[in-house]
Amino acid sequence: MTIEAKLHRANGALTTLSNGRHVWNADVDESLGSHDLAPDPHDLLDSSLAACTTLTLELYIRRRQMAVTDLRVTVDHVEDKDESGTVRYQMQRRIFIEGDLPEADRQRLLEIANKCPIHKLLSGQISIQSEMVDGSQHG
């Protein structure tokens, strides 16, 4: 599936994203010259992990008919640079589950959370291939 990002320069850096079925936005903070009208790309990355974790767990909980009454996932991140200037991105995910569950079930849910597709993608090696295309050629 292709994601398209279209910049709206009249609105600072507001960018509309689409996958052909859904539309959402991204922006940057006002300190970077925009209007802070939408989440920034780091928030979108963090939200991908939070959403994938929540949905993966919910599907497992439903299949197993577990006694979960509430499920919430938070993701925070810290960015820093090491001595060589390499940026390190550390994500902290917290999974809050309410319900009458034995500790073994809670541990199993943590294992399942670590199997969500976005967690696996972010934990693996990612390769990005880029090419420059003349914008006037875009149809």
Automatic annotation (TrEMBL):
InterPro entries: KH_dom-like_a/b, OsmC/Ohr_fam, OsmC/Ohrsf. This is OsmC family protein.
